[in-house]
# Entry
Amino acid sequence: MYVAVKGGEAAIDNAHAWLASERRGDTDVAELSIAQIREQLSLAVNRVMAEGSLYDPDLAALAIKQARGDLIEAIFLIRAYRTTLPRFGLSNAIETADMACDRRISATFKDLPGGQVLGPTFDYTHRLLDFALAAEGGERPEVATRPADPAPMPHVTGFLNRDDLIEQEPVGDDTPSDLTREPLEFPATRALRLQSLSRGDEGFVLSMAYSTQRGYGRNHPFVGELRVGTVAVEMDIPELGFAVEIGEVQVTECETVNQFAGSKTEKPKFTRGYGLCFGHTERKAISMALVDRALRWKELGEDNVGAPAQDEEFVLSHSDNIQASGFLEHIKLPHYVDFQSELELVRKLRAEVERSQTAPTQEAAE
# Structure
C-alpha cells in the first residue's frame, strides 16, 4: 500500500503540472490578466459571485482563471475560500428601492415613475457573430453613464399594493438562518428557500422555471419589474448608535406578478414571486422568482399538482451544483474494492444459474 501511495503522489504531482501547462496554453499568446477577466467577462464573474456566495469581483476573476473557465470549478474555489474568512458582523437589509439602476424594465406597466431603462442588454441584439470583435485594438466604445440626478424609481408592485391588488409581503422580525453556516433542513422557510435558490445552479433553476411555464405547476407570471444596479450596504455600529455605509454591491432583482388567489370571503389578489442575486444575473433572478412562486403553493392554499418545481426537497437538494458535482465526480475516484465485491457477486450468481441449467440435463440422462 505504501508503494502505491508514493506512486500515486508522483502521478498527482505530474497531473498538477500538466494542468498548469494546459491552463497557460500557448506561451506565444499574451496571458489573461485578472483585470481583463473582471472587466470583459463580467457576466461570468457575476455568476461565480452569486453561486459562490461571495461578492468580490477580483477573487471571482482569479477563480475563473485558475479553473480554466470552468465556472462550477470556480464557484467551488470561491466557496472553499469563503469558509476561511472571519465574520465580524451582519449588514442591514439592502434597500433596493434606493438602487442606482443601470437597467429597469416592467412587463406590466408601460409608463411608470423613473421610466423604462433598457440599459446594457442582449434582448434586442440579432444574435449574429460580430467579427469586428475579433480585431484587436479597435476603437473604444462610447460609455453610457447614469444621469447625475436620476428620477426616483419606486417598485412597480407598490402601485398594486396601493390599490390592495397584490398580496402584502410579510415582514419577519427574526433574523433568517444563514444557509452558508447551517445545513438546510425541511420544511424550509421562504427565506432559506430564497437563499438556496440564489446560490443554486443557474441552469438547474432555469430548467425548473421553464417547467412551470410549460404546465408543470400552476404558474402564469408577468415580470412586474426587473432592475439591475448598485445598492449601498450598511452596518449598525453599536459604539456610534447608527448605521454606517461600508460599501456597495451590484445586484439584480426580479418581482413577478402571478395568478391571483381569492375566495368567497377574500377578495382576489395577485400573488408574488421574488428573486435577487449578486451582479448582473437577469436569467437567474427571473428563474428564481418563478421557482419561488411555485414553491409557495402550500402557504397560498393551492393544490400540489405533483410538479417537480413544487417539490421543495427535490428542488433545493438538487440545485446546488457544488454538492451535485462532488457526488457525481467522486465516481471517478478508485472504487476497486467495491467493484471487486460486485464482480465476485455477479460471478457467483452466474455460477448458480449455470448449475440450475445443467441439473435438469443430468437428471434426464440418468
Notes: The chain has twelve helices and four strands.
